[in-house]
Amino acid sequence: MAFNLEELTNKISGLAASAPSIGAKIKFDFGSDGIVALDGTASPMTVSNDDMEADTTVKCSLDTVEGLIAGTVNPTTAVMMGKIKISGDMSKAMSLASLFKG
């Protein structure tokens, strides 16, 4: 099942509701498919489609994030293969592991 932006935003919102705060603002940039912004400095974390300033920006496809959530995509391999590009604070991007364990 391929997520569209709205479905992915809802899925990440659900994961964020039960995950510990990550203490960072992270933006997923899907190019022409849109943006999902996660404010992990808020309690509880908030998720929106606003193009906000972020500590870290993760550029990838909707399918790649779907795979990360499902556990079928290894984040390290995806970065090495160029499927994920990270700008900003890499340690903040690594905090997403706690979110995607949901």
Explain the overall architecture.
The protein is an alpha+beta fold. The protein has one domain (5-94): SCP2 sterol-binding domain (Nonspecific Lipid-transfer Protein, Chain A). Helix content is 38%, strand content 21%. It has helices at 5-18, 62-70, 75-80, 90-94, 96-100; strands at 25-29, 35-39, 46-48, 56-59, 85-88. Strands 3-2-1-4-5 form a 5-stranded mixed sheet. A hairpin with a 5-residue loop joins strand 1 (25-29) and strand 2 (35-39). The longest helix is centred in the first third of the chain and has 14 residues, at 5-18. It starts with a helix and ends with a helix. The mean pLDDT is 91.
Structure summary:
38% of the residues lie in helices and 21% in strands. It is α+β, with helices and mostly antiparallel strands. A 5-stranded mixed sheet has the order 3-2-1-4-5.
Instruction: Give the overall pLDDT as a whole number.
Output: 91
CATH architect. name: 2-Layer Sandwich
Rg over CA atoms = 12 Å
CATH H-level superfamily title: SCP2 sterol-binding domain
In terms of structural class, how would the helical and strand content be classed?
A: alpha+beta
CATH top level label: Alpha Beta
The low-pLDDT segments are: none
List SSEs in N-to-C order. Answer: HEEEEHHEHH
Helix content: 25-40%
How do the strands of the widest beta sheet line up side by side?
3-2-1-4-5
Number of helices: 5
